[in-house]
Amino acid sequence: MNIVLLYLELLKGTVTTFAGLASLPVIQEALVNHYHVLTNEQLNEAVVITRSSPGPVGLYIVSVGYFAAGLPGAVVGWLAMITPALLIIPLVHFVGRRMEHPRVRAVLQAVVVASAGLLLAAAIPLGRDGLTGPVTWAIAAVCFVLLLTTKIDTLWMMLGAALVSLTASSIGLVAYL
Amino acid sequence: MSEEQFALSFALGRLTPGTNLLAFCTGIGWILRRWTGAFASLLSSSVPCTVFVVFITVLFARWQENALAQAAIKGAIAAAVAVTVKTVWTIAHPHFKSGNRGRVILIGAAAFALHALAGISPIDVLLLAAAIGFFLPEPS
């Protein structure tokens, strides 16, 4: 895939959403469904990598870029991640407090909530690819409950899930993963 | 910088597309040292963690043939699916306030249905949401 096109597709995801993983549906639509340079499994792996390392969640774009086009892809992923941050300069300089206008806030709120709905839709194919047996379903269910009810860091959750899966595999439960 | 400038950068960082943390840092850099400060802040807040993520991603790509690593990755991916679904709530719940819940559920459910069931692209759904937000402001 052309590196400039990859940058533009990743940028389309980051510049139209307001939270780390919220750009995932846009990226999935472009790179998985349209250009076929990425799989849902790699998208899942990008989330795993980002949640297991320091830094913002939006970093998953860097892994996505790497999976799609190697190191140059990682570089354009980084560029696509940082480009929207520059938009705060005109906001601070010219807009300032006017961002509190009710209509502006209503637009932003609608976009943020819609991005949550889109993320739920994007989770369906990710789940289909990632949850392939009773063990992985159980891991996901337990993690989901823990995420809702505790403040355990996702890094430990990922490591715990990996350990459970590894143990299941080593005692001959590979078919149930 | 003053507390007011800090608060302004924080608030606008939340309203800037993309990764809020990077926008927040860039805003602080801009307020303190204009372009030099903005770029210094943006680079220092994004480059180290990016290098780390690239390193881990390269390892992931190399572990594709290792059965043990694959078994561990499968478990971690299952956890990642849970994280993704939980993020839906993380994004939506600050807006899920009394008097506004119906609107949030309606917009969120409509976005889900338009993309998952009707096959409308995410960008079009987001543009539609922006139009709804513009013409139907939230009740005060």
Summarize the model shown:
Chain A has helices at 3-15, 24-34, 40-51, 60-82, 88-95, 102-130, 134-149, 154-170. Chain A is mainly alpha-helical and 177 residues long.
Task: Pick out its properties.
heterodimer, A: 177 residues, mainly alpha, B: 140 residues, 80% helix, flat
Could you explain how this protein is built, in words?
Chain A has 177 residues and is mainly alpha-helical. Chain A has 2 domains: 3-129, no CATH class; 131-177, no CATH class. Chain A has helices spanning 3-15, 24-34, 40-51, 60-82, 88-95, 102-130, 134-149, 154-170. In chain A, helix 1 (3-15) packs antiparallel against helix 2 (24-34). Chain B has 140 residues and is an all-alpha fold. Chain B has a domain at 1-65. Chain B is built from 5 helices and no strands. In chain B, helix 4 (101-116) packs antiparallel against helix 5. Chain B is flat and about 55 Å long. The two termini of chain B are 33 Å apart. The model of chain B has no long low-confidence stretch (mean pLDDT 88). The chains are: A mainly alpha (177), B mainly alpha (140). The interface between A and B is large, with 108 and 86 residues.
What average pLDDT do the residues of chain B reach?
A: 88
Low-pLDDT segments, ≥5 res of chain A: none
What is the radius of gyration of chain A? 18 Å
Q: Tally the helices of chain B: what do you get?
A: 5
Class by helix and strand content of chain A? mainly alpha
User: Averaged pLDDT of chain A, please?
Assistant: 89
- Ends distance of chain A: 33 Å
Give the domain tally of chain A.
Answer: 2
Helicity level of chain A? over 70%
Biggest beta sheet summary of chain A: none
- By secondary-structure content and strand pairing, the structural class of chain B works out as mainly alpha
Strand content of chain A: under 5%
Instruction: Tell the overall outline of chain B.
Output: flat
Query: What kind of sheet is the major sheet of chain B?
Result: none
Q: Oligomer, anyone?
A: heterodimer
Based on CA atoms alone, the radius of gyration of chain B comes out at 20 Å
Strand and helix order of chain B: HHHHH
